[in-house]
């Protein structure tokens, strides 16, 4: 009888060693997808206005190490609209998220506005 319990114990430890990493990986991927969906939802709530409908695309880059990045591409918006959107997104998103807004300003020159949101002061720059 003791040999049976010892064999069952070895068998359960073997299954745990085989299936443990798979279950851990699935749980990690599920948590990552939920965080990505939460970021997308927050950004899309800010972009759900008549001024931006049909004029944007959103991409969320999740990283296991380092800051997450949300990239918003805007078409046909003025510099004031881009800056207003960046301010609203910086207030709504968590501190570890980097927001990048790419847009075509009113003068039809391609410009990239980047706002880094963190615990320190926000840094913004425009390259054209």
Shape: rod-shaped
What percent of residues adopt helix (DSSP H or I)? 40-55%
* Low-pLDDT segments: none
Cα separation of the termini: 78 Å
- Using only C-alpha atoms, the radius of gyration works out to 23 Å
User: What is the count of β-strands?
Assistant: 5
Structural class: alpha+beta
Per DSSP, the total helix count is: 2
Please state roughly what percent of the residues sit in beta strands, choosing from under 5%, 5-15%, 15-25%, 25-35%, 35-45% or over 45%.
25-35%
Averaging pLDDT over every residue, what do you get? 79
Give me the strand/helix succession.
HEEHEEE
Strands of the widest sheet, in order across it, are 1-2-3-4-5
Largest β sheet strand count, sense and barrel closure: 5 strands, mixed
How would you explain this protein's 3D organization?
By secondary structure, this protein is an alpha+beta fold. The protein is built from two helices and five strands, in the order αββαβββ. It has helices at residues 2-47, 79-92; strands at 56-61, 68-74, 97-104, 110-116, 123-127. A five-stranded mixed sheet has the order 1-2-3-4-5, with helices on one face. Helix 1 packs antiparallel against helix 2. The N and C termini lie far apart (78 Å). The mean pLDDT is 79.
